[in-house]
Amino acid sequence: MKKIKHHDASLFSKQVIDAVSSHIAVIDKAGIIISVNKAWTDFGKKNSIHHNRLPERTSIGTNYLEVIKNSKGENKKEASPAYNGILKVINRKLTRFTLEYSCHSKKERRWFIMTVLPLNKKIRSVVITHNDITHRKLLEEYQLKYTAELERTVEERTRELKLALTKEHELADLKSRFISTVSHEFRTPMTSISLAIGFIRKYKDRIDPNTFLGKLDLINDQIQQMTYLLEDVLLIGRNEAGKAKVNFNRVLLRPLIHGFIDDALKRIKSREVKVLFVCINQWICTDENLLRDIISNLLSNAIKFSAKEQITEFTISCDNAHFFFEIKDRGIGIPDKDKLNIFEPFHRGTNTNHIQGNGLGLSIVKNAVDLLGGDITFDSGLLQGTTFKVSLPVVNEITGLNG
């Protein structure tokens, strides 16, 4: 142990102090280093810019308080609390002071903890120890990183679980609505069929030909209605399972649209629709079946939810990139509380209980529009009618076909 003037080193054994790994120094009340151990010296030499020579800033006789006060770089932020802490122990305002700090080099990252304790009351000297806590800090960093990753994983799995539960609840709700809707929609036509068959059996010997054919037409219509329902349910099932197929073909828009309108009106056995066509010989690339689903269901809804004397308007327009449908009715409208879920399967407006339907039409329309790469919007007010607007690409990006 090196000595100057004072004999603080006599308070502890040189052999013991030099054997410990802590970097130890004793400073007097003025902050002058008066004694250091071997670990302090070795650390100073190792980190000195002068190879194997203890730098003056940590040598005996140096004012350690001034060294701390003049610290630069990343250690500057810890200099002030270290300086004040050492002074408080020197002046006996504290019996112990500790401070964790970083001491990184270009080659490695290091952390230390400084502990300051009073030593000699008469000359108010203090002992300062620096212990390497790098291993502990690296473990803490790893633990924090691992904990953060674990928390992210838990949050992600929690979101997935919540999503799965939501999907499960939606599926259960969908199944419930499916059973309720299909049961009701099948019960009505089957009741009509049963009554028609019963009538024919009871009056088969007296029934006239026209009445007989009328009953057969009724039975056929009800069977057709059930067939449509089954087709819609199967279509929704394919869409939900992601198994819907899209077949794009180049077709002429005007005759295709008029053919779809005629088919739709025959299906719903309704009056004519006012059609405005402002495209001239426009060729498009589309899937005819999906386009038929869109037009048929939108027209069916517009007519079904309007009074007989009210007119349904169907406008078709186009530009170089898109063709547009606008189907406008003056019917019962859509209540605000139903608008958010209007495209959900089996969802029916709360004001439609008195009107026959299965709640599948708009869901089929939305799926078809999405598959064709289009967009659908609507504007509706209660008892003010509804306008649906559909935009579809003239040229499909998947096939690259054009007119």
Head-to-tail CA distance between termini:
96 Å
CATH architecture of the largest domain: 2-Layer Sandwich
Helix content: 40-55%
Q: CATH H-level name of the largest domain... which superfamily?
A: Histidine kinase-like ATPase, C-terminal domain
- Report on the biggest sheet: 5 strands, antiparallel
Helix-strand sequence: HEEHHHEEEHHEHEEHEEHHEE
Shape: rod-shaped
Task: Briefly note the CATH topology name of the largest domain.
Answer: Heat Shock Protein 90
- Report low-confidence residues grouped into runs of 5 or more: 3-9, 397-403
Number of domains: 3
Strand order of the largest sheet: 2-1-5-4-3
In CATH, what is the class of the largest domain? Alpha Beta
Strand content: 15-25%
The Cα radius of gyration reads 44 Å
What is the average of the pLDDT values? Answer: 83
Could you tell me the number of beta strands?
12
Class by alpha and beta content: alpha+beta
Contiguous helical run count? 10
Report on this structure:
The structure is a single chain. With 403 residues, this protein is of the alpha+beta class. The chain has three domains: 8-132, PAS domain (Beta-Lactamase, 2-Layer Sandwich), CATH 3.30.450; 139-240, Helix Hairpins (Orthogonal Bundle), CATH 1.10.287; 249-393, Heat Shock Protein 90 (2-Layer Sandwich). Helices cover 46% and strands 19% of the residues. The strands form three sheets. A five-stranded antiparallel sheet has the order 2-1-5-4-3, with helices on both faces. Strands 7-9-10-12-11 form a five-stranded mixed sheet, covered by helices on one side. Strands 6-8 form a two-stranded antiparallel ribbon. α7 (253-268) packs across α8 (288-304).
